[in-house]
Design brief:
Blueprint: H1 3-21, H2 23-26, E1 41-48, E2 51-61, E3 64-78, E4 95-114, E5 117-134, E6 143-159, E7 164-181, E8 188-206
Antiparallel strand pairs: 1-2, 1-8, 2-3, 3-4, 4-5, 5-6, 6-7, 7-8
Length: about 210
C-alpha cells in the first residue's frame, strides 16, 4: 500500500473514531451507566512488545476523560560480527541499543456495552517524542531524533471491580521526526511513519 493510501486510511480511521465517540452519538445512552463519575481520577499502565506506558485519567463526566501518558522503550542486542578486520585502537560497540520516550495527550470517551464491559475511544490525541538509536558497529555511529504526531485508539475493558479494570486497545498513529545521523550535524533528515494495529494490554486503577 502506498504512503498516500496509508494516509487516507489513517484519516478515515480517525474520522470514523470521531463519529463513534462523538458526544452526539453517545447522547442516546445514559452517561451514568459507565459507573464513572466526574472529577474521578485513574492510573493506567499499558504494555506491548517491550513498550511500557504509564497514564493518568481525569474524568470530566461519567463518559469522558482527559488522558496523559508517558511511555518508554529500551532494547539492547549483542552485535555478532567478525571483528578481525577492525584496526587496533578503533573503538567499537559490542551491543546495539535503541531507546524511545514519548508523551501523549488525548480525550477519551466511554460507553457501556455489557455488564461490567466498557468500550472506549481516544481521539484528538497528540504525541511528542524522542528517539536514540546506537545501531552501528563503531562508537561514532548513532541516530538521534525528536518529533511528534497524532494518534487514536479503540479499545474495551472489563471492570473487575469498581476500582480495577483490565482490557486492550488497537492503536493508529502518524509521526514525523527530525533525525541527526552520526556525529556530524550536517547529516540530518526528516522521517515519517504511519502505524496501524499495535495492540496494547492495559490495566487501570480508579480513585
Amino acid at each position: 500500500m502506498t504512503a498516500p493510501a496509508l494516509r487516507r486510511l489513517f484519516i478515515g480511521a480517525i474520522m470514523g473514531a470521531c463519529v463513534v465517540a462523538s458526544p452526539a452519538s453517545l447522547a442516546a445512552q445514559s452517561a451514568d451507566t459507565t459507573g464513572f463519575v466526574a472529577r474521578q481520577w485513574g492510573a493506567e499502565i499499558g504494555i506491548n512488545a517491550g513498550f511500557t506506558s504509564l497514564g493518568v485519567l481525569r474524568f470530566s463526566a461519567p463518559n469522558r476523560a482527559w488522558l496523559g501518558v508517558v511511555g518508554a522503550n529500551f532494547e539492547r542486542n549483542r552485535i555478532n560480527e567478525d571483528l578481525s578486520d577492525v584496526p587496533s585502537g578503533v573503538e567499537i560497540r559490542r551491543y546495539w541499543d535503541s531507546a524511545d520516550l514519548e508523551v501523549r495527550l488525548g480525550h477519551r470517551w466511554y460507553r457501556s456495552v455489557a455488564s461490567s464491559v466498557q468500550q472506549h475511544v481516544t481521539v484528538g490525541g497528540v504525541i511528542a517524542g524522542a528517539r536514540r538509536d546506537n545501531g552501528g558497529l563503531f562508537s561514532s555511529e548513532s541516530d538521534r531524533a525528536i518529533g511528534g504526531g497524532v494518534f487514536a485508539d479503540v479499545g474495551a475493558l472489563w471492570m473487575v471491580t469498581r476500582r480495577l479494570s483490565l482490557g486492550a486497545a488497537w492503536n493508529a498513529e502518524a509521526l514525523g521526526f527530525r533525525a541527526t545521523v552520526g556525529e556530524a550535524p550536517q547529516f540530518r533528515r526528516v522521517t515519517t511513519s504511519i502505524e496501524f494495529g499495535r495492540i496494547d494490554l492495559r490495566g487501570a486503577l480508579y480513585f
